[in-house]
């Protein structure tokens, strides 16, 4: 995808949604960190359902420690891998209290040093909480990047590096939200809804589905490994 096409791609997405936001629900930076950690291999809808009561009770790492691992499990048992996630969230809270004064650090290395926090989770927190120009490559962004030809890569990190090079201002802060939402609701995995896509003419995908109800032709697209 050419430089001018990338700019126009984001210009159109921004025109349709000027202020894109994560669909995870949270009240502060710590709750965001917990929500993103819980969202690995889970849907935002499922995480929100589990965290509404949890976040009414827990707003700080210290309060999470008071709740304890078993108490946390009771809140998040509907989320996949809840046992390991509860263990990580409690261990994370201990480190935040002990080493960061109960605050979430605005630093990728410090974030990825926390239990259960990978590069994608750190990038989401840095972007959503601190306004950093980061690109958190989940399965949606991985698919959209490869499918459109904007950011091709065999790994999430490769796609992230391509986005870092190609996404222009003034779209860099909002880019990862636009790409996630585009992949979630239009550029879907099994059948992309090209017939209603606002950037279909800029996309390099060869098997476009231009009529509702039509079946896409099989085209091999790299699959993103599950990473936090």
Characterize the structure shown:
- Helix content is 54%, strand content 0%.
- It is mainly α.
- The chain folds into 2 domains: 3-19 and 136-202, Endonuclease Iii, domain 2, CATH 1.10.1670; 29-130, Orthogonal Bundle (Endonuclease III, domain 1), CATH 1.10.340.30.
- The longest helix is centred in the middle third of the chain and has 19 residues, at 82-100.
- It starts with a helix and ends in a 43-residue tail after the last helix.
- The mean pLDDT is 92.
Offer a few descriptive terms.
228 residues; Endonuclease Iii, domain 2; Endonuclease III, domain 1; 10 helices; 54% helix; elongated
Secondary-structure map with pairings?
Layout: H1 3-16, H2 29-38, H3 44-57, H4 61-76, H5 82-100, H6 108-112, H7 119-130, H8 139-148, H9 156-166, H10 175-185
Helix pairs in contact: 2-7, 3-4, 4-5, 8-9, 8-10
Summarize it:
The protein is mostly helical. Helices cover 54% and strands 0% of the residues.
Roughly what percent helix? 40-55%
Query: Counting H and I runs of at least 4 residues, what is the number of helices?
Result: 10
**CATH homologous superfamily assignment of the largest domain:** Hypothetical protein, domain 2
* Distance separating the two termini: 28 Å
Number of strands: 0
Uncertain regions spanning at least 5 consecutive residues: none
Roughly what is the average pLDDT, rounded to an integer?
A: 92
Net shape: elongated
Under CATH, the topology of the largest domain can be stated as: Endonuclease III, domain 1
**CATH class term of the largest domain:** Mainly Alpha
At CATH's second level, what is the architecture of the largest domain? Orthogonal Bundle
**What structural class results from the helix and strand content?**
mainly alpha
Number of domains: 2
């Amino acid at each position: 995808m050419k430089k001018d096409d990338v700019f126009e791609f984001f210009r159109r997405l921004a025109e349709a949604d000027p202020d894109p936001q994560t669909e995870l629900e949270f009240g502060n930076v710590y709750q965001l960190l917990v929500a993103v950690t819980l969202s690995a291999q889970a849907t935002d809808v499922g995480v929100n359902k589990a965290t509404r009561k949890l976040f009414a009770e827990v707003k700080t790492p210290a309060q999470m420690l008071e709740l304890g691992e078993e108490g946390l499990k009771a809140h998040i048992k509907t989320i996949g891998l809840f046992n390991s996630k509860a263990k990580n969230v409690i261990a994370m809270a201990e480190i935040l209290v002990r080493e960061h004064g109960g605050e979430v650090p605005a630093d990728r290395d410090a974030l990825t040093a926390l239990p259960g926090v990978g590069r994608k989770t750190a990038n989401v927190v840095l972007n959503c909480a601190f306004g950093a120009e980061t690109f958190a490559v989940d399965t949606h962004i991985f698919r959209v990047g490869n499918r459109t030809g904007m950011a091709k890569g065999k790994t999430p990190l490769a796609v992230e590096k391509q986005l870092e090079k190609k996404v222009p201002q003034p779209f860099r802060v909002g880019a990862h939200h636009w790409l996630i939402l585009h992949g979630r609701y239009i550029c879907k995995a099994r059948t992309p809804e090209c017939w209603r896509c606002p950037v279909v003419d800029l996309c390099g995908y060869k098997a476009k589905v231009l009529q509702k109800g039509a079946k896409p032709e099989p085209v091999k697209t790299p699959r993103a490994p599950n990473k936090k």
